[in-house]
Structure formats: C-alpha cells, structure tokens
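Anyone? Bumping this.
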Amino acid sequence: MATTPQTVAAAATAALPPGHEAEHNYLNAQKGIKSWLLTVDHKRIGIMYLISVAAFFAIGGLLALAVRLELFSVGPTIMEADTYNRIFTMHGIVMVFAFIIPSVMATLGNFLLPIMIGAKDVAFPRLNLLSLYIYWLGMAFALGSIYTGGVDTGWTFYTPYSKETGTAVLAMGLGVFIAGFSSILTGLNFIVTIHKMRAPGMTWNRMPLFLWSVYATSIVQILATPVIGITMLLLALERVVGIGIFDPALGGDPVLFQHFFWFYSHPAVYIMILPAFGIISELMGTFSRQKVYGYRAVALSSLAIALLGFLVWGHHMFTSGQSPISSVVFSMITFLIGVPSGIKIFNWVATMYRGSVWLVTPMLYALSFLFLFTIGGVTGIMVGALAVDIHLHDTYFVVAHFHYVMMGGTVIALLGGLHYWWPKMTGRLYSERLGQISALLVFIGFNLTFFVQFIMGSQGMPRRYFDYPDMPWLEPLHQLSTIGSWVLGVGLLVVLVNGLWSLRRGKLAPGNPWGAVTLEWAYCTSPPDPHNFHRTPLVTHGPYDYHAVFGGDGAGDGAGLPAPVPDVTVGAPQETISVDDGTSPPDDATDIVSRTRGPPGRAPSGTPWPITRKPLPPSPRRRSTASPATTTTGTRTSCSSGTTGSSTRRTSSTTSSRPSSSSRPRSWGCGCS
Amino acid sequence: MATTHPSDSHLTHEEHTGHGGHHVASPQLLLRTFGGLVLLTIVTVGLALAERAGYVPLGPLSVPVALAIAGAKAYLVAAFFMALKYDGGTNLLAFVGSGVFLVIFLAFTYLDTGFRDTFEEQSAVPVDILEAEEAALRERQERLEQSATPPPYVLPPDTALFGDVPTAPPTTPTPQPGLQE
Amino acid sequence: MWLFLMTEILLFGGMFVAYAIFRAWYPELFAEASEQLDTVMGGLNTLVLLLSSLTVAWAIRGAQTDNRKVLVWNLVATVALAGTFMVVKYFEYTHKFELGIFPGKYFVLEEGTITVSGEEAVALLPAEEAEGGAAAPTVVEGLPDPGPNADEVPEGAAIPGEAAQEPIVVSGGDEAAAGGGETGELIEEEGIEEALGMEEAVAQDYGEEAAHGAELHAADDHDGHGRHGAIFSNPRAGIFFSIYYVMTGIHGLHVIIGMIAIGILAWRARRGDYTSVYYTPVENVGLYWHVVDIIWIFLFPLMYLI
C-alpha cells in the first residue's frame, strides 16, 4: 500500500504521535491466524519466535523454581530424586536449546536485522519461516520426551550414562538435532542478508553494533551447529545399534563425546551471549547520548570472541581425563577470551563516561548487565584456570558462574532490549514505573539467588545433587537462594504484566521515543510498515551519531558534549527526527536524519526539504558544570531519570548553543552519493 | 545460443557476461578435469593395491600420499567443477574457512586423545608419598611371600582310602591370594 | 549456498575427526578392517561419482549456454549415475551384513566362521560345512544354545534378523563359483576391473589369499581381501565399521537427497525453467553435488585404501 501524504497528515492530525502509523502496519496489514502462520514477514516471524521463546522461558523458569524449592531443605522436600533429575535436566535443555539459543537471534535479530540495514526483509524469507517450523518441530520432540519418561542425563547428555539410562534420550536428541537446523538456517539467512541487502550508504562501518554481534553469532551457528547434529546422531546410533564410538567396552571413548559435544556447546555459549553484547552496545549508545566508544574495537571484538570461542571447548573437560597437555593449552586460550570481552566492558563504561546517562528501564537493565556479566566473566576466568577448576568443577560455583553469564548476561540484555524495542515492535509504550520496578526486582532476585551459590560452590556443594545431607550448614544459604528465586520470579512476572498491560492500555508510541538514530528508529514508523520502509533509506551517517540530530559535538570520547537526552515524554513531537512518511523526494541525497520534519500538511511533495540543521536550545534540564572542557560551550548535559521534560524544548530553535556547529560540514557521513 | 557450441571458452565467456560474470567452463576444461580426476583415482587405487601386495612399500607415507592425492582431486573438483577458481573471495573464504575449522577441531581433539598419557610419569604426587607407597607395597609383597606356602609336591594320601595316616596334617593346596597378584 | 556447504563439510567433519582419532589409536586394526572393504567396488563408485560431477558441471554449462538438451540430459545422466552409486552401495552393504560385519557391538566377523549374532549370540555354521564350494544358502544353526528349530532363521534382534533372512552366499576357494551367487554384482565388477586395468592386482590378491589356506575362505570377501588378522572376533574392529557405516550411510543419504533434487531440476529444466539468465537452482544443486563428491573423494581412500 502506498501511503500518501494525505494519510500521514490525517494520521498526524488525529493526534497520533509522529511516526506512529496506526492505519497500516505489519500488525494489522493482514488479519487472521493463517496470515501469521504463513507469513514470510521477518517481523511477524520474529514476533512468533518471541512468543514461543517466552513460553519456553516460562516453562524453564517454573522448572527452575521447582528445583530451587526442592533444595530448600535437607532431605526430599517436594519430589523424589528421580523426578529431580528429570526436572533439572528439562530445565537445562529447555533453557539452552529452546530458549537462550534462539532468544535474541531469532526474536530481536529477526525483527531488527532487515530494518537496521534498511532492507525490506531477510534474504530468504521462506527459509526464515521454515526455520521457525523446524524449531517448533524440534521442540515438539523435546517436549514429547516428557511423555516418554523424561530425560535425566543433564542437558549435556554425557555418555556413557546417556547410553545406559532408560529414559527418552532418543526423542530429546532428535529434538536437539532438528532444532539445530533451525539455528543453521537462521544464521545462514542473516549472513546473506547482511552481505547482500544493506541499504545504499550502509557500509560495514555504519552498521549498528547489534548487527556485528548478530553477524558473528551467525558464523558461529553455521560452523558449530552441524557438529551437535552429528553428535546427537552418533549418540542415537550408539543407543540404537551400539556403534560403540563412545563406548569403552567396544574400544570407543566417552571423552570423545565430550569433545564433540563441547565443540558445539562452547561456541553455543557465544551464540547465546554475543547478541546480548550487541543489545548492550545499542542501549549504551542510545542512553548515554553519545557515540559508542571504540566502535571498531567493539565490532571486531565480537568477531574475535566468535573465533576464539572455537578454541576453548576443552575447559569444560579439565576433570574428564583428557590429556594434561590439552588441559594446559585450553586453559591458556580460555584466558585469551577475557581480552575481547574486557574490551567490550571497558568500551561500554567509556561510552557512559561523561555522557548523558538516561536511567530509564532499558538502561537499568543494561547497567545490571554490566554488573552481572562482569561478575560472570571474572568468575569464568577463575574456573578457566586449570588448578582452580579442579576444586570448583561441577560445583555450585560453576552453576552460579554460568547463570551470571547466561541469565545475568543474555536474559537481562534481552529484557533490556525488549523494553527498548517494545514501542517499535508493538507500537505501544510500556509503563516506565512498572519497568523500573521489574528491573529492580530482577536485579535483586537474581543476585540473591545466585551469589550465594558462589559461596556454596566454593564450600563444595556439587551441582545437580538432589540433597545435601552431609552439608547441613548450607541449608540457610540454599534457603536464601530459593527465596531469591521467588523474587526473581516476581520480577519477571512484573515484566510480563507490564508487557500485556501495555498491549491493551499502553500509550501509543511515537516513531522514535528514544531519540535514537539507527534506521529502525529514525526512518521507520512504530510499528513498522509491512515493507519496513516506503523507500529504500539512504544512510549518510554512523549508527550512533546522535550529535548529528540532537547536538553535542559527537566526539563520543567524553571530552566533548554528549547529545542531550531527547524529550520523549509520550507523544511529544520530535521535529528533528525524520520519519519516512513517503513525502520526501525520491532522489534526495541529503542527510535524511537532519532533515527537518515539517508540520503536517506543510510540505508539498517534491519540495526540497530544508536541510539546515536545527541547533538545540539550551535545555532547562541542562546545568553548567565546572569542567573546563565544557565551560567553553557553556553547557553540560547531565540527566536524571524519569524526568518529565517540558515539551517546549525545541520550540525555540533559533539560538545555537554551540558555536562550532556552524563550521561543521553538513554531511556527517561520507562516501555516499 | 542454443544454435552453436562454441569450442572457444573465451568466446563463450564474452557472450555470457549477463549472469554475474559466472565462468562458463569449456568442454575441454571439463573433460580435462575429469581426466585428471580419473587418472588420480587410478593412481591412488593402484598404489594402494600395489602396497597391499607388497610391491610398493610406502610404509608410514601411505596415509599422507593417499590424502594428498585426495586433496588434489578435491582441488580439481572445487576449482574447476565448482568454478571456485573464477569465483572470488567470499566463497573461497567460506570453503577454506570450514576446512580450517575442521582442522582446529581435529587438532585440539587429537591434542587430548593423542597425549592422554603424556605426563603420567611426572605425576603431581609428592615424592615422599610415592616412596611411602612403594615401601608399603614392598612390605606387603614380603609379607605375602612369607605367608604363602608353596603347594606340596607330593599330595598326602587320601584318608578315605588309606584309613590311618601317621604323617602331619596335609597342607591343602589352597590358592593363596597373594600369589595371584 | 556456500554457507550451507560449510555446514555440510563440518557435519562430515565430525565423523572425519572420529575416524582420525580412532585410526590414531588402532592403526593396525583399521588397516586390516579397511581390507575387508571392497576396493574395486569403492573405486567403481568413485569413478561413478566423478563422472556424475562431470555431468553436473556440464549441465550447468548447458544452462549457461541456453542449451536445454544438454542441460536436461546431463541432469538425467547424473541421476542415473547416482542411482548406480546407490545400487553398488547396496550390494556392498548386503554383502557385509551377510558376513556379519555390523557396526559396533554387533560386529561379529569371526575367523573361519560367519557368525551373525544379535543379543542371543546366534551363530551360523561355518560355510564350508554347509555346502562345499558352490553358492548355496547357508544352514543356520543356533550356537551354543540352539533354538528348537535349528534350521530356521533366527528371529533375533532387528538387524541380524534382517540379514539372516537373506540367503547367505558363500564363495569357496573357487571364484567362478562365487560368480554363481552374486552374478550381477560380480559381472559388473569384473567389467570394471578390466576397465581399470587392475585385474592383475586383484588376481595377485587372490593368489595371496590362496596361500592362507582354505579355512579362511569362508570368511573372506569374495575378491579375497580377507586375511588372517586381528580384526576377527575383536569387538574393537566394530569401531571401524561403525564409522564406515555412519559415514557412508550419511553420505548415501546425501546422494539420495541429491538425486531427488536433481530429478526435480531435470523435470523443471525440461519444462524450460532455466536459461542463461536464470539458472541459480541448477548452480546451487550442482555445488551441493560437488561437495558430496568431494566428501566421497576423501572417504574413499580413508575407508577403502589405507
């Protein structure tokens, strides 16, 4: 459907926030369940993934609560040991294979990747839908294994136990095998999309960091996932026809299974965490109001992590009886992984340095992420050290470590990303108050649950144990952990309630509530059009050039000015944000973002937009600081959270607060014609 | 184009620049590639059979030679049949890259399986404990040797057949556990 | 497509790694087990696959030059060649099953005895006792605890049962007699032997085999690669055949998938769907087929030759 200027004008006059396109978007373009199930629209597929993944997260979370409840006291509390084994196994498998691996990639990745690079869809839309169905099929097998008795091997399926146990390893293995193909197809699709379908002007160095992460993740998915496929196949054959490759009685080697398994599953850890890094990069930039510090370093560190991630799998096997020499080598390479991860952490912190840190819900999650992931990462180096690991292996220390990385890292980042992109996905604003409450609850609950597990682990509490009769002194800690899990559960429930509430009652979202400058915000309505853009966007600046739109000098190094926090109280007009309303001239090669959006009805089609950049007036929220670097310009932006900024901030746009802005060349991007 | 079969590959190439500059392989090229593949197959099979029959003692070289031949064949297929030679960077990177990761997989796994007993002699157990264990073992050995009486060379007469036996109670040749160790 | 090929390579890569690891552990075992495989059939299959690669490449050329006839017939020829490959594979498999060469724990190739045992360790009599020389169904007898009907085919575990239901053909020392049993297979094979000019090498093997004595013949591959060695009754030898079956099996699966894909292509090409402007599907399936070929190029020496 071709949106005419009239419809946009009509929409705007109907008191819709700018950029909010109620008449026609991907959500209401077609109706009916069939239009969802047969869609090839990456946005709808992303939403369906999101719903599935959220459902599995709920299942896995309930199982986790059951596990924690069982450990509340010494002795059987609510279940028997056999049930316990099945439940923690199911928790692990659901969380790893059904939830975390597709969590960010298939939901936010699917939804955002084409929009962020300015494409209409992914490269192979039908393949994309196929991957969703394959995922569902795989999960059907995985869940079906519950009816055939469940699995009690732990999510790692270690032989020889997984060969001997009478439970439904076959169905589960088949499920994992099938789900792997879904992962491969997604990765393949994303790589081709990024390579082939970037909008004009979207150079590699202008891609949002989220896409760099997605790209690195896709490589890992393609390279590693086939190995879990063959591993599960061999395990199945081992059970069915006894091929003996993993069976010592037949000359095989159970440790070889661990090699096979971890050759996939360690890179899979990076499949889980890398997209989360990408989300955090986006959040840090947007909510610090300045360039992400060290863009290239952050981007390349993603690739470095992806590649190094293939060289460290043996650190899961220090106590398995592998050769000492390989343990030493793996331990050394494991330390190397700390380098690119550290680069990221430091760059994020540097991004906040002297930025206008804007403490809304997504940023709260991002800060939680920094805190939790750093703990998770540093303890990872601890257990990566060969000697320490001998003591800590398979204890609660390891459990706490990977929950800090996976939950404190990926899940927190996913929650932050969901809050951040929620207005874009649904066209509704969530309740900021509920959002902040949930962020707080999740943070407290998470630490309560898992920090004590570090202590328990270092005191020798083994993982996967049903009971701890020999260590009764751990009971209070276990109880603390269990109580923490309830807090965490309540926090996540608040997130769910907030989301559902916003769907019904949330205010309509404007096109760019956060004042971000990546394409999905700056150039796309909320919710997006079925084809994302009315016209292929032309990219002329980097993904974090907030200064190009909102002022600041764009140095992004903490020495200059950050862009001010935009006034994003709901529905306030944001005049400097261009929304592609279909009225701008087709071959307009000027800086799209700096194009001023005129009042509705004022701009006739074909008229060149004024390409002057609106300098920002001094904000009432700005206050001068004593810093010598900023006294020259007179303003220093510092922002507190949740301010209801006045909507008149940009009405008087004549005075420039920054004398240097006039001498700046108008086009901040380069090489685009 | 269906009318002619140009034998000159350059001509063909020029005529079909429409499709992304894909290389159009000439029949000669294809046939020559195939010929090379067949030749290499015969060589490798011939070598293997000859080696098995004892004519060509390749010894430890047999595996590398066979793999080298296979690699050459794979190169022929990839370069000419798959037109990788004319294709360009990304595809080559993907193809070679997967091989590289395969080598990584193999190398690191072999680092374990090939060196399982590398450090067995240089164990981390302190020397005094090792010596104490050795001493204990030696002592146990001596104790067992003392306690174990060798089986008698002549069996004592059966009391059921020969009622009264004046000699000492027979030493039953019960197997001593110590001797088995 | 190339990315997909990466996943294919790594999928097989896992098995190549397993092969390499176990070969490093049991070199002699693998060498001897490898000799149980039929080099000639393997070589034949290699040539068949190489030829099919040629036809696919030629088909792409046909598409590029808008020559529909070349395109279609080359695709058809590819499917036919792939079919040939699978047929040869089928004969190889069935023959091994007959000999008791099963993967893993079912591996029961014994010296001088063909034993097909599943869970109940049901054994077949030595072939020479069953019938002398000529090909004939082997008498099945339960050992050591014979079932009530010694002459009946045991209903054991699925796989042994399957194999046992086929008439067991045993070649004695006389190759001509063996020809009577598996005629088609052997004729085909002999033709290829001549074509390859390897007759002498094979004959050499026969000669060597004869030196080993008649009692070995029963267990031998009919072209005489079986020798006295460590693999008989060695459960670890099953590892080799496990990897052999898994790798060739999955490879065969790929061949079948390729056959289907190429068949569809041929059908559509006949309809005139592909021109020099649009032939991406042909090209992609062609690439896939070449990778299948390359994998076999590595499988063949690793499994059959060294």
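Late reply, but here is one note on the structure posted above: Residues 48 and 54 of chain B are 10 Å apart (CA to CA).
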